[in-house]
Amino acid sequence: MHHRQRGISFIGFILVLAVVGFFLFLGMKIGPTYIEYYSIRNAVNKVAAEAQGADINTISRSMDRQMTIDYAASYKPEFVRVVREGDQLNLVLNYEIRKPLIYNIDFVAKFQHSAPIRQP
């Protein structure tokens, strides 16, 4: 009689488990950085939408207040600035985060976003 083996071997199962575990680990380390970015990005969009005709100091205070509400641990006021492009004002988010990944390996994430400020 000829029997055919079906399924995955124990060693194959351990290898698949290790690969899946590695990617889950990466997701747990990198994921919060992206979640925080989307929180800051939403705050920039909200402040830009509400900043019609406001001066730079008012926009800065509004951004700080919004970040107090949304809380992003790595947010710094230097990340956001008002830039004039022609006759249009934009609220520009630009920052880079470096965090440890494994032992002496870090990951770097660079984020950029721009939201137009409506003129009166």
Please describe the biggest sheet, giving its number of strands, its sense, and whether it closes into a barrel: 3 strands, antiparallel
How many distinct helices?
Answer: 2
What oligomeric state do these chains adopt?
Answer: single chain
Q: How many runs of DSSP E, i.e. beta strands?
A: 3
Cross-sheet strand order for the largest sheet: 1-2-3
Mean pLDDT: 88
Distance N to C terminus: 86 Å
Residue share in helices?
40-55%
Low-pLDDT sequence parts: none
Class computed from helices, strands and strand pairing: alpha+beta
Order of helices and strands: HHEEE
Shape: elongated
Strand-residue proportion: 25-35%
Task: Provide an overview of this structure.
The chain is of the alpha+beta class. It has two helices and three strands. The chain has helices spanning 10-50, 56-70; strands spanning 80-85, 88-102, 105-117. It has a three-stranded antiparallel beta sheet with strand order 1-2-3. Helix 1 runs antiparallel to helix 2. The mean pLDDT is 88.
Write out key terms for the chains shown.
alpha+beta, 120 residues, 2 helices, single chain, 28% strand
Write the layout of secondary structure elements.
Elements lengths: L9 H41 L5 H15 L9 E6 L2 E15 L2 E13 L3
Antiparallel strand pairs: 1-2, 2-3
Helix pairs in contact: 1-2
